[in-house]
Design brief:
The protein has about 130 residues and is an all-alpha fold. It is about 85% helix and about 0% strand. The longest helix has 29 residues, at about 25-55.
């Protein structure tokens, strides 16, 4: 519960920063920044689901696959909406991390390391607020 509130506050701070940055450079930038931040927030939710799914992989291996699919879907949304090189690099980095976790799970790893996914998601959020 506290983590959810903390992440909610972080989302508000990130969105405010993106809005402020966008006001300086134009309305189109605001829309793109907010889209990026909102999608990054959805990815954060999926990363949380992935972490929980990995903890319970023995009970429900399909849940981790579903969380990975959700992250991929949101990555496509960001990639389709931006022409920012740094955002695209962060999207690619997170995509590779997702692929590595998916491969580990398919190869029978019941406790794959999801920290690269978490790190890459943090990098994406940071890039979205620049």
């Amino acid at each position: 519960m506290a983590a959810s509130r903390r992440r909610g506050r972080l989302t508000v701070v990130v969105a405010t920063a993106a809005l402020a940055a966008g006001l300086v450079s134009g309305c189109g930038t605001v829309g793109k920044a907010l889209d990026c931040v909102q999608t990054a927030d959805s990815i954060a939710d999926s990363v949380t689901d992935l972490q929980q799914a990995v903890e319970n992989a023995a009970d429900d291996p399909a849940r981790a696959d579903s969380a990975l699919d959700s992250i991929r879907k949101n990555l496509r949304k960001i990639g389709d909406k931006t022409d920012n090189t740094d955002v695209n690099k962060a999207v690619d980095h997170l995509g590779r991390a997702v692929d590595h976790v998916r491969t580990a799970i398919r190869n029978g790893d019941r406790t794959p390391d999801v920290s690269p996914v978490t790190d890459a998601a943090g990098e994406l959020t940071k890039v979205c607020t620049k």
